[in-house]
Design a protein that fits this description.
By secondary structure, the protein is α/β, with parallel strands linked by helices. The chain has 5 helices and 4 strands; from the N terminus they run E-H-E-H-E-H-H-E-H. It has helices spanning 10-17, 29-42, 52-57, 60-68, 87-102; strands at 3-8, 22-25, 45-51, 73-77.
């Protein structure tokens, strides 16, 4: 059975502990990249959740690996620790996650 891994900042990791996923809690993008590459090599995970802030700091090659990965499905999630004023951005995040997961663009009304 495939596992779920979350690569997140320490402040966010507590919330993921309640969900039963495995957690790699790290304050730095360099260590997050190492955890991600190790997880890809291990083939133990079906889904990898990663904070999109980490992803934006990765080099082009690593971002390409994330975009092309089918199994595991790598899901970048905005996990900022502050309120957002624009709901439209969260809709676009959901749309992008759906597009990556199923390969089609779905318009949310």
């Amino acid at each position: 059975m495939s596992k779920v891994l979350a690569i997140v900042y320490p402040e966010v990791s507590r919330g993921f502990k309640f969900s039963g996923v495995q957690i790699k809690s790290t304050p730095s993008s360099e260590l997050a990249k190492k955890h991600l590459l190790d997880a890809l090599k291990s083939r133990d995970y079906g889904i990898i959740i990663i904070d999109e802030d980490y992803l934006s700091s990765f080099d082009e090659h690593t971002r390409h690996l994330v975009e092309e990965s089918i199994v595991p499905l790598i899901v970048p999630v905005p996990l900022e620790m502050r309120w957002r004023e624009k709901a439209a951005r969260s809709d676009s995040n959901v749309q992008e996650m759906i597009r990556r997961a199923i390969g089609y663009h779905i318009k949310i009304r």
